[in-house]
């Protein structure tokens, strides 16, 4: 993947769609949207956090400012496969993302404090992030199949549909492939609309007509909450065993 974008600033609005809503929306999108350069992809992520999950717990409190760190690949990686180290920040509803690429094996060493990164401004930000939190390590695996669209007229309008969202809290190595527990119900898709400013009227109208409403949904946050519920259930079962 060459010529990748390394800096983003945009508003991201999320929606959970049923299979029926997704099918009904497609004819509308075909008039206004087109496949982007990476139309279909499988994305795998390692989210880094402190031992007590400070980053995701803070995010779930919905503060005006929150941030996360992840390692992303667009296929099951080998040692020398391209990967992206990303900082994602959200400030008053606006998303800022910085990312730099490294071979997968080197990225793991860098994030573990065992190898070099780079000398760019983005790596300086990553270095500061790692020093500030001090004890970050892989905390959650998340993968999904994505369809990406771009506006035919407005090239800054992007829409992504994620399905087959899988998570796991062990075997935290992207090279082990995409497997884990389902995060969504069968047929559901997570729609993300990525816009620099206001949503187009045609899109707002279509979403309203199909009763598709914005939702506050974080893949990492939802997986973490599911993990907590499972651990609580296990504790209760042990008490009554």
UniProtKB/TrEMBL annotation:
SUPFAM superfamilies: CYTH-like phosphatases. InterPro entries: CYTH-like_dom_sf, VTC_domain, VTC_sf. GO terms for biological process: polyphosphate biosynthetic process. Residues 10-227 form the VTC domain. Signal peptide: none annotated. This is VTC domain-containing protein. It comes from Clostridium sp. enrichment culture clone 7-14.
């Amino acid at each position: 993947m060459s010529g990748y974008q390394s800096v983003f600033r945009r508003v991201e609005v999320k929606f959970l769609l049923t299979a029926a809503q997704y099918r009904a929306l497609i004819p509308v999108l075909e008039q206004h949207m087109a496949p982007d350069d990476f139309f279909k992809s499988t994305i795998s992520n390692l989210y880094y956090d402190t031992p007590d999950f400070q980053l995701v717990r803070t995010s779930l409190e919905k503060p005006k400012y929150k941030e996360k760190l992840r390692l992303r690949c667009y296929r099951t990686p080998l040692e020398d496969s391209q990967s992206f180290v990303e900082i994602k920040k959200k400030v008053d509803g606006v998303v800022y993302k910085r990312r730099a690429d490294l071979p997968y094996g080197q990225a793991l060493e860098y994030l573990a404090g065992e190898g070099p990164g780079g000398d760019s401004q983005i790596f300086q930000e990553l270095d500061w992030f790692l020093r500030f939190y001090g004890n970050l390590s892989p905390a959650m695996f998340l993968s999904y199949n994505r369809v990406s669209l771009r506006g035919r007229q407005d090239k800054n309008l992007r829409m992504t549909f994620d399905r087959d969202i899988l998570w796991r809290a062990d075997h935290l190595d992207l090279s082990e492939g995409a497997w884990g527990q389902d995060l969504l119900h069968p047929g559901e898709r997570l729609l993300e609309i990525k816009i620099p400013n206001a949503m187009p009227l045609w899109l707002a109208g279509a979403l309203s007509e199909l009763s598709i409403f914005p939702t506050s949904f974080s893949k990492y946050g939802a997986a973490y909450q599911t993990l907590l519920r499972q651990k609580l259930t296990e504790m209760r079962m042990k008490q009554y065993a």
